Structure to design on (126 residues):
């Protein structure tokens, strides 16, 4: 569905000399930001004055990643279930799955600090 390419940097590496576990959520976020940009949207504007706010995340680690490796962060699927927008990801290196996961977002009106319905134009885009 969407692919973001990234090269592992020094700041991604932890004391174990591999990518820190917290970086998976950053990889997901960066891919999601680029996905939104490809649709002329952003995390603060998915249409109709709505942004998104994350409520949940799931990460499964399959293989270590190391400095200077190039990864592909793939958004495999985006689906809407009621008010939830669920993104499913996999992180690949050399055709191997290294990380899998998902994030659950809600459409959010930041000016009112309230959850809202997913904008119709966003539903049409995905």
């Amino acid at each position: 569905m969407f692919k973001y390419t990234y090269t592992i940097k020094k700041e991604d590496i932890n004391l174990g000399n591999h990518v820190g576990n917290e970086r998976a959520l950053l990889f997901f976020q960066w891919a999601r930001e680029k996905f939104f940009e490809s649709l002329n949207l952003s995390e603060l504007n998915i249409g109709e004055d709505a942004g998104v706010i994350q409520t949940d995340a799931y990460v499964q680690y399959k293989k270590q990643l190391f400095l200077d490796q190039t990864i592909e962060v793939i958004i495999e699927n985006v689906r809407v279930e009621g008010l939830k927008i669920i993104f499913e990801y996999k992180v690949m290196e050399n055709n191997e799955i290294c990380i899998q996961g998902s994030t659950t977002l809600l459409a959010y009106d930041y000016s009112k600090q309230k959850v809202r319905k997913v904008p119709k134009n966003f539903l049409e885009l995905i």
Remarks:
- The first helix runs from residue 23 to 38.
- Strands lie at 2-7, 51-61, 70-81, 84-93, 96-109, 114-115.
- DSSP finds two helices and six strands in the chain.
- The helical segments are 23-38, 120-125.
